[in-house]
Amino acid sequence: MKRNAISRPLSSLRQESVFDSYYNSYFNNSLKVPNPSNSSKPESTPPRPWKPIFIEYVPEEKPIVNTNYNQLLRCCTDLKSLLQIHAQLLVSGYKSDNLTDTHLVQNYSLFGKPDFARFVFNKMENPTTISYNSMIRGYTRMKQYRNAMLLYHKMLFMGVEPDRYTFVITLRACIEAYNVDIGFLIHEEMVKNGFDSDVFVVSALIEFYFKMGKIDAAEKVFENMPEPDVAVCNAMLKGYSLSVKPFEALRVFFKMQREGIEVNSESLLNLVPAVSKLASVRFCRAFHGVVTTRDFSRAVLNGLIDMYSKCGDVLSARAVFYRLCGRNDVSWGMVMEGFVSNGWFGEALGLFDCIKRERLKLNPVSAVSALLAAAEVGNVEKAREIHDYFLRAETVSDLRSLEKAREIQDYFVRLGIDSDVDRSSTSTSYRAGIDTDTYWSSPETSY
Hints:
It comes from Papaver atlanticum. With about 450 residues, the protein is mainly alpha-helical.
């Protein structure tokens, strides 16, 4: 027969709780035989048998804290991880809070899932301004501009006060959707909320009016600024440079220098299309003088090469190129395009030989310029050599989007070269295939 737990020796017990120690001690003392010499009275009642007491352990209920999940959401780098974190949140029974839900909305929008973001957004009891901004930005990023503008109207209807980021993001949606009416309403709401002197918001509003072709409205906004800084002036420079009033960009630039507003690289890059349109060597040299006063980025020097080339001063463009430290593929492309557009075909082919000899990156502008130079001089072998090189460099996929692709394809057909360049390109690009005016004014120009 098995021995019960009471009859086992105490040494066989591995671990004893506080309650077990207490009752074992009581049980052992009760089994001791009384000494007659020490006790004068007989024991009246027998010892009570020991009965184990079972105490149920109830864990303490603690509220689930989402701090760790928020840290994970901030560090999330892919959609799969985000879905796993969201699933863990759902099965853990967390209570919804604005901070965690806003992180979910931001990440779903970032990873291109606006429907998932809107599902989380609709579950929020009281969405904050940041939540609305995240949702509007997600719609704008996914080119769902109508949904972005509808959500902005819902935000105002629900009494949520917009901030500076709300206006900037919604104006971007209006620009992409080419919706002038909503932009006018946003302008009125900006004035109503006191953002008409905010540099960040005013710069976005000026860009909106220039994109919509409302140059007079943009000028009025600029004139109403009490103290325009470099960001607002850059918006005016960019707008004028890409409009039919390039000379006005120079007026703004000279005004900045008179009033002591320090220009930056963005200011000069925004000015490049205006000087190129005016085709004035005098303005190019004035621009060059400003560049030499400070250590500007390489993109500004590449723009200087492009300006000199379009103004016909190829010698100055070549001098800037050879003095440029750390030349990249954009630098080579700009100077080669300048050589071809001004009839310096031999120099353009010489630069291609340098690119091939040094195994440098061949971008589409360099490839097209070299091919056009070979076509102009009638060098069939050189054309074949250039064609084979950019096939190995996998530049054909980039060439398909260029305006000159059809002309190059026809040239290859006449030479009997079977090329992969698409003949159906319908791009409206500029010269050798890139609209350099838009290129220099784009925020992605960071070479």
